[in-house]
Specification:
91 residues; mainly alpha; 2 helices; elongated
């Protein structure tokens, strides 16, 4: 009878250790999940802020942009395109 009592005692100890291990795993997974959610929230706020800043910068750029001139009129460009050789570096 004494052996049976010892086996039950060992079994209870192992079961208790498994339960503690399971609780520790759940705690670690919960902490990891909370950290991931917090990090994604911070990134969402940063992304929204960056998007707003880019929209402001694009609006400022569009308001101050002037037409860039190459010093040639568009007629010169059309003439140059018409005078291109039909073959370049071939037979």
């Amino acid at each position: 009878m004494e052996k049976n009592h010892e086996v039950k005692k060992i079994h209870a100890h192992v079961h208790h250790a498994k339960k503690d291990n399971s609780n520790m795993k759940m705690l670690i997974m919960t902490i990891a999940l909370v950290l991931l959610i917090a990090i994604s929230g911070v990134q969402a706020v940063q992304l929204t802020s960056l998007k707003e800043k880019m929209n402001e910068d694009l609006a400022d750029l569009a308001a101050t942009t002037k037409t860039v001139s190459t010093g040639h009129s568009s007629g010169d460009l059309t003439d140059n395109l018409n005078n291109l050789p039909s073959m370049v570096g071939g037979c």
